[in-house]
């Protein structure tokens, strides 16, 4: 997937608010519940390959920016990645 395709896939998903982290508002999608698990994997691969490193507390995540959101995975290997997160920039 290219950047435009990843952005279109992510924008088309139904996101869930992460209510367990109200002081760090963000949303997430889960691979098993998204519209196309194969596209989820491709999007996660893109995010991990093209993300820009930024520190969040003690951990560094790779963030990609599309529109008004930043996106990131949990940083696990692709075969263990089952969540993509997003937050407003």
Q: Can you put this structure into words, describing what you see?
A:
This protein has one domain. The chain has two helices and six strands, in the order αββαββββ. It has a six-stranded antiparallel beta sheet, covered by helices on one side. The protein is α+β, with helices and mostly antiparallel strands and about 90 residues long.
Q: What's the end-to-end separation, in Å? A: 23 Å
> How big is the Rg?
12 Å
Give the proportion of residues in helices. 25-40%
Strand runs, count: 6
Q: List SSEs in N-to-C order.
A: HEEHEEEE
Count of separate DSSP helical elements? 2
List the uncertain runs: none
- The pLDDT mean sits at 95
Strand proportion? 25-35%
Please tell me what the overall shape is: globular
Structural class comes to alpha+beta
Tally of distinct domains: 1
- State the major sheet: 6 strands, antiparallel
Strand order in space, largest sheet: 1-2-6-5-4-3
Notable traits:
89 residues; alpha+beta; 2 helices; 27% helix
Give a short overview.
The chain has about 90 residues and is of the alpha+beta class. The chain has helices at about 5-10, 35-50, and strands spanning about 15, 25-30, 50-55, 60-65, 70-75, 85-89. The chain has one domain.
């Amino acid at each position: 997937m290219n950047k435009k395709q990843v952005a279109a896939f992510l924008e088309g998903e139904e996101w869930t608010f992460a209510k367990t982290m109200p002081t760090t508002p963000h949303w997430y999608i889960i691979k098993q519940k998204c519209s196309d698990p194969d596209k989820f994997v491709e999007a996660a691969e893109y995010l991990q390959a093209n993300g820009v490193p930024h520190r969040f507390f003690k951990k560094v995540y790779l963030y990609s920016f599309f529109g008004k959101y930043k996106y990131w995975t949990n940083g696990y290997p692709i075969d263990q990645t089952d969540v993509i997160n997003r937050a407003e920039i």
